[in-house]
Amino acid sequence: MRSELFSIRMRAAEGGAHEDGGKHISGAEALVEEKGLEKSVLDFLSKARTHTRGTPDFLQISVEKVATHDIRKIETLPVRRFDVSSIAEGREKAAELLKRIRISKVAIDNAFHHLLNGPTHRGAILVEAHSGERMDARGLKGIRVSRFGWNSDAALPANGRIRDAMAIASKVASSPFSVAELCWSDDPDYTAGYVSSGTFGYMRVSRLKEIGCETGGRVFFILPNTDVDDYIRYLEKCPVLISTKGREL
Ligand code: WAQ
Ligand code: MG
Fold first, then answer.
1. pLDDT in tens, 50-80
2. What's the pLDDT at 246?
3. Comparing C-alpha atoms, which of 205, 122, 99 is closest to residue 111?
């Protein structure tokens, strides 16, 4: 019998809580067994307090038990890497990959505009893959993918940031309404990002922005006929465990 699982989430802001106009500093989420809760709480506390985006004066950690009969098993995406020698080349590569996944030009342009100009959102925005219109009404909060964890058999990358990015991309791609995702970090010291999709996998692009730059984010491109409320419910609420099936990560 599998032991109980808990969803743990953290958000931190500077200049007040997010809802009071504070600047988003850090967020994190995980699905852990009860015995891992103490460690996760301390890890999340320290992640927020040592963040390169600033020093939070608002920090919230929530813990919720997850109904284990709801858990869905999914697989991680295969990984490909594109090492580029300049930011311009990286952005061109990302746009080309999105075009190959049949995202329209206007949708790609809107997504780049969002990631390049900010303001930084706490979560992802939803963009319709053809019209390029933003489909959620979440404002700066966006949508935080949550309730994901790795199956205990999974052989994981050592880097926690890459592990989290791959988990988020895998959960997003597991919805039949997701077409693709574009992401780069809002952390000033991290310049890599990715384009991902269920069929193309997790395609890491080594340089997408300047060091020191604090704008970044996530865009989920969705099908025109998506029921947005259901889609958001799946990403935020449905617990998934991800297995690596012997994949080289
Ligand atoms: N759900 C939805 N959006 C999220 C989530 C989440 N769980 N976590 C972060 N975001 C959004 C939010 O707008 C952040 O501002 C933005 O993404 C960037 O988050 O292969 O580190 O955690 O080398 O700063 C990708 C490349 C790294 C990894 C991405 O993002 C690699 C990264 P960060
Ligand atoms: Mg960040």
1. 999 999 999 999 999 998 888 999 999 999 9
2. 64
3. 99
Q: Which residue has the tokens 């310049």?
A: 191
Residue 187 in tokens: 């952390």
Write the Ramachandran bin of 230: left for phi over 0, alpha for psi from -120 to 50, otherwise beta: alpha
Q: Closest-lying ligand to the alpha carbon of 183?
A: 1
Find the ligand nearest to 121 CA: 1
Q: Give me the residue label for tokens 């949550």.
A: 146
- Beta-bridge mates of residue 74: 242
For atom 18 of ligand 1, the residue with the nearest CA is 185
The dihedral formed by the CA atoms of 157, 159, 165 and 171, expressed in degrees to the nearest 10: 40
Q: Supply the DSSP symbol for 15.
A: S
Q: Which residue has the tokens 């990403």?
A: 235
Q: Which residues of the chain have pLDDT under 70?
A: 1-3, 246-249
Enumerate residues lining ligand 1, CB below 6 A.
Answer: 27, 29, 120-124, 142-145, 161-162, 165, 168, 183, 185-187, 190, 192-194, 204, 216-218
The contacts of residue 147 (CB under 8 Å, 6+ apart) are 7, 29, 31, 66, 236, 237, 238, 239, 240
In sign, the C-alpha dihedral spanning 119, 204, 209, 211 is positive
- Phi, psi torsion values for 40, nearest 5 degrees: -65, -40
